[in-house]
Inverse folding.
């Protein structure tokens, strides 16, 4: 991956979604090189997901995060308190939303997931994406009956949920 396209995409994200992440506004411009990022797996996510905060602190409030996954990575049925926006940089994935048909995600794809909206995501090929959140990151997994379950249970069983 070349650095220039990613910097352009970061610029696009900050400019295009500025109103949605206005609480992150600062007086200084920001350009981030992926080579300088430190990736880790956030609590509650499967180990196949690695993220690096670009702007804000996802544990405390609104943030822009760069995320990458391995091929076959799946985040089982869950919801977040905050609204989540995804902008795919590379890879191929599938997002399934409660009462909806699966949607294919590929380079350039964009999706908005309102808070408390049940969904699951799987990357068929390794994915990289920007994740924008208007509040602190949390994740609430559910079982087939729609009852909340602990992350350990969801990730161990690869929880599935009927449409």
């Amino acid at each position: 991956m070349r650095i220039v396209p990613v910097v352009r995409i970061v610029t696009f994200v900050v400019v295009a979604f500025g109103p949605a992440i206005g609480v992150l506004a600062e007086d200084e411009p920001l350009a981030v090189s992926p080579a300088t990022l430190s990736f880790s797996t956030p609590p509650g996510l499967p180990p196949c997901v690695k993220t690096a905060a670009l702007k804000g602190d996802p544990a405390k409030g609104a943030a822009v995060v760069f995320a990458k996954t391995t091929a076959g990575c799946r985040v089982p049925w869950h919801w977040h308190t905050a609204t989540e926006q995804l902008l795919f940089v590379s890879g191929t994935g599938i997002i399934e939303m409660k009462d909806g048909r699966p949607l294919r995600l590929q380079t350039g794809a964009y999706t908005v997931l309102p808070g408390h909206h049940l969904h699951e995501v799987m990357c068929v090929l390794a994915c990289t994406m920007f994740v924008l959140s208007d509040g602190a990151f949390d994740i609430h997994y559910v079982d087939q009956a729609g009852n909340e379950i602990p992350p350990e249970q969801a990730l161990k069983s690869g929880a599935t949920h009927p449409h």
Q: What stands out?
A: The first helix runs from residue 3 to 16.
